[in-house]
Amino acid sequence: MKGLVLSGGAGTRLRPITHTSAKQLVPVANKPVLFYGLEALRAAGIDEVGIVVGDTRAEIEAAVGDGARFGLRVTYLPQEAPLGLAHAVLIAEEYLGDQPFVMYLGDNLLKEGVTRFVRRFEESRPDALILLQSVADPGSYGVAELDGEGRVARLVEKPKDPRSDLALVGVYLFTPAVFASVKAIKPSARNELEITDAIQHMIDRGLRVEPHRVTGWWKDTGKLEDVLEANRLILGTLTADVRGRLVDTTLDGPVVVGEGSTLSRCTVRGPVVIGAGCRLTDAYIGPYTSISDRVVVDQAEVEHSIVLEDSRISRLGARMTDSLIGRGVTITRSEAKPVAYRFMVGDASQIGIL
Description:
By secondary structure, the chain is α/β, with parallel strands linked by helices. It has helices at residues 33-43, 57-64, 85-91, 93-96, 115-124, 178-184, 195-204, 224-235, and strands at residues 2-7, 27-28, 31-32, 48-53, 73-78, 101-105, 108-110, 128-134, 142-146, 152-157, 166-174, 209-213, 218-220, 241-242, 245-247, 250-252, 255-257, 262-264, 267-269, 272-274, 279-281, 284-285, 289-291, 296-298, 301-303, 306-307, 312-314, 320-321, 324-325, 330-332. The protein contains 8 helices and 30 strands.
């Protein structure tokens, strides 16, 4: 069995972060989201993975390389435009050949990984196995309707009036039978080949599509609140590991401090992960915060946030919370007169002022 990982989306809901970085490389607990998926596939016994890439191909390739660090052999499959999940399957047909495969959306996180689903697929041998989870806003997802016997009756992509709360999780298992259905469907109103339409076509052909409900948490990290929630969930499994230097600093709860980092006169309430080469002085770091490498925090309070590499947070007048700070960002309180706000802000940014 091979893996097919989709990493070609533009990530418009995470701009401006994704103006300069692939959405699949946004870190959760200081590790790119994409890496969790690759590790999950390897844990399931899959060692050949095709990664569908688009405009951010160079970044994805630089981060993943040939896949050896994950125990994988990686092949990159260029997609000229984000034309839908089923289109990604179509362009991967030659690579996948006549083998069954797991399709994994590169910006998704599953607490339980995919090993159990791969084993079930191998044992049950359906034509497709789809993962489902009840959600509060099914209209934002592909939705599955089940019949009285628990079989998949109908699939609808982002329905205006959902008849079910069962969303399709971003992991699918297929036999090569899916290729005929992908070739038979037409683009949707948004000009994409929808995977929901392809699976519905398989059902209409009389093929066996088996549903499986996900009991652990699942996160599609396409939006800020979902990235922060995924960060919170991953940090909830953290084990303390302090490799940096602590000076008059108090740690409470599980905290990870990377090599070469120095924390002076700080209070850190875990779960918190702090990367390598950071410098924190007279700071409070609250729960569910991830601080990447070479970040400086000075006379500031940060909580339930993600701060990426080489940024500086200094002398804030209030606690920063529920935030995602990009790479090389400086946020500081100026002492200049007259008192005024001064910003240099990229496209699609969001700023809240007290």
